[in-house]
Amino acid sequence: MAGNAADANRRPPAVILAGGRSSRMGRPKAAVVLGGQTMLARVVDRLSPQAASIAVNLNADPGIALPSDHPVIADTIPGLPGPLAGVLAALHHASKTAPSASHVLTVPIDAPFFPAALAARLQGALLAGDEIAVAWSVGEMHPLFALWPVAIADDLEAWIRMDEKRRVRAFIARHPSVAVDFPITATKAGPLDPFFNVNTPQQLEEAEEWLNRLEDFEL
Ligand SMILES: Nc1nc2c(ncn2[C@@H]2O[C@H](COP(=O)(O)OP(=O)(O)OP(=O)(O)O)[C@@H](O)[C@H]2O)c(=O)[nH]1
Ligand SMILES: [Mg+2]
């Protein structure tokens, strides 16, 4: 029964993945300002109603004041081996701080328009309860928008150490998973993929334009 009080109590712990190099942006994406707000503040605001707790995965100081109520966690595997290292840090953090949680939710730092119903829909799609629930839109998987079972931490660690390219999709394929398709957001300027990804200064400009045009967009 989606949306009842019991569901609210089962909101998952969440981790914002901001531990990458931001090399295409040229500065830490957590600190980049969009619509007068840092990406970090924007993603925290979007996630807060959806999550029982929020931690931020960072491996370097982004040079902005960090929210004191959201702990910062670093990768437990050194050398910036890719996004799965952030997922692993999220799983370790959840098992320590939320031992009763079966899953942890991850969202990357660079997709400011992600769905308000992300957590609820991913959670509602779990069948046996031990799956990875992964977001899709427009026929494409968004593997860092996912609910990860805490129990797969050891397998993930072994995968990161073994798979040369630390492939995210190939790791997901090793486990039971459910795909959750999210609709396109309608805007005055046409359809917007809610997982629109801001990797470059040019995409930041595009995101500013989308922000100006958004219609019926619930923040
Ligand atoms: N913890 C951790 N997160 C990473 C790592 N590499 C990428 N990420 C995160 O994975 C997500 C997707 O990565 P990208 O969009 O390529 O971000 P990025 O690696 O910071 O940026 P580029 O250097 O431009 O590729 C972002 O949320 C990154 O913060 C890593 O080595 N460790
Ligand atoms: Mg990206």
UniProtKB/TrEMBL annotation:
InterPro entries: MobA-like_NTP_Trfase (IPR025877), Molybde_CF_guanTrfase (IPR013482), Nucleotide-diphossugar_trans (IPR029044). GO terms for cellular component: cytoplasm. It comes from the Bacteria. Its cofactor is Mg(2+). The keyword Cytoplasm applies. Residues 14-176 form the MobA-like NTP transferase domain. Its main location: cytoplasm. GTP binds at residues 17-19, 29, 57, 75, 110. Mg(2+) binds at residue 110. Its EC number is 2.7.7.77. It is found in: Cytoplasm. Transfers a GMP moiety from GTP to Mo-molybdopterin (Mo-MPT) cofactor (Moco or molybdenum cofactor) to form Mo-molybdopterin guanine dinucleotide (Mo-MGD) cofactor. Belongs to the MobA family. Monomer. HAMAP family: MobA. This is Molybdenum cofactor guanylyltransferase. It comes from Sinorhizobium glycinis.
